[in-house]
Amino acid sequence: MSVVFGLLLFSCFYEINVFTINADNYELVIYTYESLLADPGYDFVEGFANHSGIAKEDIHLVLLEDANSIVTQAALEKNNPVADVLIGLDNVLIHKAKEEGILEPYNSPELVNVSSDLISNLDPMKHILPYDYGIIALWYDNSRINSTSNPELDTLKLQDIIDENLDEILIVEDPTLSSPGLGFLLWTIAVYGDPSVNFDGLLKDDWRNWWKSASKNLRIAPSWGAAFDIYYTEEENRPMMVSYGTSPAYDVCHPLWGVGSGSDPPSTAIVSHENGTENAWLQIEGLGLVKNAPNQANAQSFIDWFLSAELQDNIPTNNWMYPANVHANISSCFMDSAINPADVNILNDLITPTMLEENLDMWKNDWETEIASFSSIFLIILTLSFSAITYIFLRKKRE
Amino acid sequence: MSRTVRKETNIEEIANKFIIILAIIALGSFLLSLFYVPLIQILRFAFSSESKFTFAIFSSTITDTLNLKFIGFTFAQALLSTVICLFIGLPAGFFFAKYEFKGKKLVLNLLTIPFVLPPIVVLLGFIVSYGEGGWINSIWKGMTGTDNVLISIFGTFEGIVLAHIFYNLSVIIRMTIPAWQSLDLEQVEVSRTLGASEWKIFWKIIFPQIVNYLISSALLVFIYTFNSFAIVLYLGEVRFQTLEVRIFKMMKASLNFSGGASLAFLQLILNTIIIILYLLFERKTRQMAIGKERGLQKEKISFSRYNWKKNLSIIGLILFMLIIGVFTFAPILAVIIVSFTPFSSEVSPFFGYMQLFSFEYSPLLNNSPLRLLLNTLLFAFAATLITLTLSLMIVFVLKNRYQSLKKYQRSISESFISYMIILPMATSSITLALGLFLLFNNTSLYLNAVWFFIIMAHVLISVPFATRSIMAAYNRIDVELLNVASTLGASRLRVFRKIELPLILRGIIVGGIFSFAISLGEFGATNFLVRGAYGTLSIGISKLLLTQTLQLPATMASILIIVTIICFLAIQKLGDVELKV
Questions:
Q1: Nearest residue on chain A to B131, judged by CA atoms?
Q2: Confidence (pLDDT) at B296
Q3: Does the N terminus or the C terminus of chain B have fewer Cβ atoms within 10 A?
Q4: CB < 8 Å to A92, chain B
Q5: Do A2-133+283-338 and A135-282+353-371 come out as alike in CATH topology?
């Protein structure tokens, strides 16, 4: 009995404790995804605390699974905003964020140092301000697959993934949940086109056909992190994943296990080679001010700081993307091993923002339809069992 | 003299009525505010747009090709899992009914453990042992010397079905044991002497006797697999989604509230039909079991020198049982072993257990592992207390036999309550959470104290279980005893305190442990509602499920396994309890 009483007492204290933590009023609440600036890690909360003089304990960082959850979470709290700043929305998610009306435009003074192309490609209205960018690419582990074993890799077309059975070793991310996953879906759409909306793309085909052929063998991970875990675990036999053009830099320039520039890179990123050009989808990531944010002034100064060179210097080798600020330092190691978006044909220009906004939900839905292989086995099981049940009933009646 | 007695009973009756009315009010307001009004909110999202009734949302949602595919899948996988479970479980049940051997009860309990474990733990065990890099596939690769895997569980139909069989097999085994035990063998003997073939005997004599047990256990497995969430969410990738997963994804990934509500409504209708069927057949089996003492002759396992055919069949059965045993028990063992296996050469075997006290994983888990453990225990503790209070009230109201002396009539409110508790039984955990979410997501209580709703969801899930367990104990009480007590002048409360309560105490304890165990591992509703720091161990495990460092999630899972097994053994100690809703 005393044990029960003790537990009760303890639980009371515990709950009080929970309440007091909850009653804390933070001076800044940030929502972002789990891997932001995480590897090897730059503590941007501490960085901003030092810069602004706000105590680190008063800045609350909430890490959500992926960029999609950031929008979802903020949309759910629309009427009672908790967060002040959202970090990690990209040029596709922006449409959903705008539709939900969760952001407020902010014209940061630091934007003078950001290329106007990036701003206009991400959001000319400045609900979201670009902080980094990079192309989506296929990333593979050289020790397990390379252009000697698979010569097609050097001039890879998306069609080769199917023809050369690369779909059996490829991991993609679920586009309904993950932003690189969605980037890759749009890549295939821009390359093959979509006859249902009279969009030719590069090849005047139908993107659905590609996914139909590939879907059986692909591995679909819920997030980039999950995909990386599968990629990294050799037993899984999946040495290729949808990632970024900057990913090889991670293996070369990482301060802990990077092999250093000059030696053979452990991994390679490639884009697709249709119509004689190197094609890729550009992802621009941005941060935005929440509408009716509880701590608006702090949020604005945080955004300014995030776009300033002080933080932006850390983007290449901690977030493994190109920094938006043109004055930010990029090491030569990074420059040498990452694919520079300026060197490839950017597919985003083919799909206009209006077209994207109008068709995105349909595209995601159609993607799911292609992936959800409704094999005839279901139908067989269903008909068999229903006929068995009717048979038994009929027999019973006769008896 | 007679007048005073009458007066006293009048006062008694009034007090009794008052207590019952109080209980009905408490129950009613609980169910109304946390179940029925949320349910109406779901209906509102499914059937109204701009505050006008419309059927368009519902019909367009359920005729959408993608949704139809997933509805078809939900049925198909549930049917297939159930049928395979039956085919394996029925002979295993026969084995346990027929043969006596040392440690039989222990073996049976071990086989049942997967069923009582939290789904996320089962999933982790399944991935560790049958995943691409899991034990079985590693052994296979070593044996064949190739890189091909034997089974692939991610994004495949067979992976999901296999996991469901693993999870639910014991339901069939345990529920068909009484079927075999209550078999009337005299009829079999008679027909055999009359020259009937073995096949005919099975179909004409044996099958009709066990068919109700078969159907009721099959329906139970069907309900569980039809409403499967965690397993399909992670193993199905995007290709396979049960209605439960589909609703969740619609709500969380595409913010399609009315679509999710429509599917939830459809699922509720289907579940209610299945549950009513189940209750029907379950009652039939109970009627059949009455008055059948002499059944299958129990035998010790023995080998005969002359009858090699019999020997072979016994060896076959034992081998079959061994395979089932390995299949069901290996994943659980694997989880515990992985929790002590360093994921890299730099960490100790106790890394996972030491991590419980560190904050290293806090950014990922939103809290330290220890706090997750505390949350889990506290939620379970609170949910159990509330569940027991409510269940006792329900039993008190439904079984108010004090009045049976004087032309007792079941009042409308009482029958109303008995119907009102069927619906929560048929409601999936995602639907429960969905209703709470749609109704309360903008209240400050939800924003600041989501733990309240998590506990309430756990309560709603466990109340039917606890109620049935207490009710079963109550039904064993001798009615005469109560009647005598009240004729001798004991008040209603006194009867309750002195006779009923002690006699149903065992049922209460069992019900309490049941709800504690349910709350401990609940995943679907918790995962739907959880915000910020109020995660539980199940949530923590799910976040780390696809990482390379399985040691920490395996540690958390091991803790859940140990606590659940203790609960389960405690229930077993207290008497034979059926694994039923």
A1: A236
A2: 63
A3: N
A4: none
A5: yes
